[in-house]
Design goal:
By secondary structure, this protein is an alpha+beta fold. The protein has helices at 8-17, 22-32, 34-38, 75-91, 96-101, 109-120, 160-173, 185-200, 210-226, 243-249, 273-281, and strands at 47-55, 58-66, 103-104, 107-108, 125-133, 139-145, 150-157, 234-235, 238-242, 253-261. It is built from 11 helices and 10 strands. The strands form 4 sheets. The protein has a 3-stranded antiparallel sheet with strand order 1-2-5.
Length: 283
């Protein structure tokens, strides 16, 4: 492990395959691309693509990361996503760990990631997956923005056009909750306390009756969560109406939605080209 940076199980397999010969085991790992890819494990992979796909009553959304957006356009990277897509729809994994263990015609998903890292030359990682099931009387709406920088999947009781529009709404407006009722009590209370503190520090609030202050507080909290709730958002195709009004007109109902955006919540590495060159010169 110290000589190659490869994982414990990969090292064990290499030693088994080479009858305990350490030198041959290192060569075996290098031939498989595992030693090479392990050295890239510390790099930050915050680019890449998301993908959304459906088959019957099953839908999946997943994200595969790379170090640069250039690699995300690579044919090998796109083929990797195609293989993973089929595997996710068939296996319906409940977690990222289960997804990595899913078998494909080209090995497990984890094997595909390791091999892609070795052959493409950048750290490739499978970040997350969401599997969504719908009922027979429900419809999937899916949308990928700019080839997969954002992917959205919506389950709607209504027609396909409405479902597609809701998926586009989710992709573009990034709601966190379906309705106000879905906001967790602790998140609501946190915002309430924050707004109360801000009001105490606002000289304009001094001397106002308690009842007036209560109504102002309710209004501020509601305004904060308005853009986070799909139902309360302005409908992107007609900003004069809310999503709730649009759904009412179409006699439709949103059952659930999922939205993945590449690299969201990840710290992106700031490249220092001069430092990188200097480091390579000292190797």
């Amino acid at each position: 492990r110290e000589k190659t940076g490869a994982g414990m199980m990969d090292c064990k397999k290499a030693l088994t395959e080479t009858d305990g010969d350490v030198a041959n085991a290192i060569d075996w790992l290098r031939e498989k691309g595992i030693a090479k890819s392990a050295k890239k494990a510390g790099r930050i992979a915050a680019e890449g693509l998301t993908r959304v796909a459906t088959d019957g009553n099953t839908g999946v959304v997943f994200e595969v990361n790379s170090e640069t957006d250039f690699v995300a356009k690579n044919e090998q990277f796109l083929h990797l996503l195609d293989v993973i897509e089929k595997a996710m729809l068939a296996a319906k994994p409940a977690s990222t760990e289960e997804a990595l263990a899913v078998e494909t015609a080209e090995g497990t998903v984890n094997d595909l990631i390791v091999n892609a890292t070795a052959t493409i030359g950048e750290k490739i990682s499978f970040r997350r997956v969401a599997v969504v099931e719908k009922a027979d009387d429900e419809v999937f709406g899916s949308y990928m923005h700019m080839g997969g920088t954002i992917s959205a999947l919506a389950v709607v009781k209504g027609d396909a056009t409405v479902a597609k529009n809701i998926a586009m709404q989710v992709a573009s407006m990034n709601p966190v909750y379906a309705t106000e009722a879905d906001i967790p009590a602790d998140a609501f209370e946190h915002e309430k306390q924050l707004q109360m503190q801000m009001m105490k520090e606002d000289p304009k609030m001094a001397g106002k009756p308690e009842k007036v202050l209560e109504n102002i507080l309710k209004g501020k909290v509601k305004k904060h969560f308005k853009d986070q709730c799909l139902a309360d958002q302005e409908f992107f195709l007609d900003t004069k109406k809310s999503v709730t009004q649009y759904l009412k007109e179409e006699k439709a109902e949103v059952k659930s939605f999922v939205r993945f955006q590449v690299g969201e919540g990840m710290e992106k590495k700031e490249e220092d080209f001069a430092a990188e060159v200097a480091a390579q010169m000292n190797v």
